[in-house]
Amino acid sequence: MSDATLDDIFGMTEAEWQGYYERKLDQHELFSVLALFEACEGGFRRDLSWRGQRHHRQKHHARFRKLLDSQRSNDHLAMAVILDQWIVAEKSKPWLRKLLMKLKVLFQARNELAHGRTGESADFDVVFSQLDSIRQKWRDAVEDFRGY
Q1: pTM here?
Q2: How far apart are CA 13 and CA 101, in angstroms?
C-alpha cells in the first residue's frame, strides 16, 4: 500500500474501516464494469473497421463502408451511431433489433456511470451476463460478426 493509503487507514475504528472497505469494493466493481464495457466497445470498433474494408464479403459491407467514408479522420464515432447502423441493418430480424436497442441502453447507462451522473452501483456479474447473452444471440444471427 502507498503511504497515502496507510495514512488514510491508520487509526480507523472498526466501523470506519468497514465503511472504507465497502467504498473501495464498490469503486473496484465500478472500474471492472467500465473496463468490461471498454473491451466490448473495442470489439465493436474492430468489427466496424473490418466490416468496412473491401473484398471480404462482409454482411452489410456497403452500409458500414459508407459510415466509415463519411467519418472525418479526426472524428470519433459514438457507440450510439454504430449501434443505430446495426439496428437499421437488421430490420428483418425484430428480435435482434430489440437486443441491439437493449445494448444501446446499456451503453447509455455506461456513460452515466462513467461520468458519475447516477447514484446506482454497478454489478459486474449482472452486466457481464447481459452483454454475453446479447453477444451470443448476435453471433447466431450474423455469422461474420467479429465484435466483442
Answers
A1: 0.80
A2: 47
